[in-house]
């Protein structure tokens, strides 16, 4: 008789791979560290190989351990898809749903749309995780998230996407730095020496430059922000000007700053979209979620047809 690894053992292995620490992995699995360690030792005994090198300082997966954990992610995704078949056949948007949201969307869109979503689907248990695009897409691929709310263009792997609406970019500047600003700002008038951008790793930085047709612009590395709020405060301190999406402006990010925002000439915008794994049995459910995440009205930009 062949004994196979259990899903619980594979979950322990994946958690240790993600967190790189037995204590944090145990917390993520809601078990004690001794329970997780025992489960992993049982898995190694069952397979007859060492998967993890243990010492007091670091946790290091063996080469074979890396191959095994990659397969473990596949098995866990398929197990989640199996459970999704039953969830999809029940009433839509009931039970648990793990949604990843990038930082340049979460604080500005969610407070506006979640109350209506809760009212429409009171039995939905929505678990939110804020993460940058690359981390959110990795978590989606590994099965840690069910869907991701992000901005396009972005390569999120083997996913289906539902475009929700366009989110236009505005140039934000101090009133003393641009006298008599025109109703629309030409992207050609933006100079590297004045431009403040987010740190590398934030998709908004490249999307904003590409949307305004100036991908070659490079901000001063010493003047980069960790968030849109930080960038706005830097502009208020007359350190330069920055590009901010309309979503953040509508969310009140310039309130009490005295700063001015002007739209860019042309169609400078990012596309807000919902993404989920290709072939997911919950695709129709995610489309319902996407419809609920579209804010009513057109103040934020143009709603896009479902794709």
From TrEMBL:
Sequence similarity: Belongs to the LysR transcriptional regulatory family.
Single GO molecular function: DNA-binding transcription factor activity
Coiled coil regions in record: none
UniProt GO cellular component terms: protein-DNA complex
Pfam families attached to this UniProt entry: HTH_1, LysR_substrate
PROSITE patterns in alphabetical order: HTH_LYSR (PS50931)
The protein, known as: LysR family hydrogen peroxide-inducible transcriptional activator
HTH lysR-type domain: residues covered: 5-62
Keyword annotations of the record: DNA-binding, Transcription, Transcription regulation
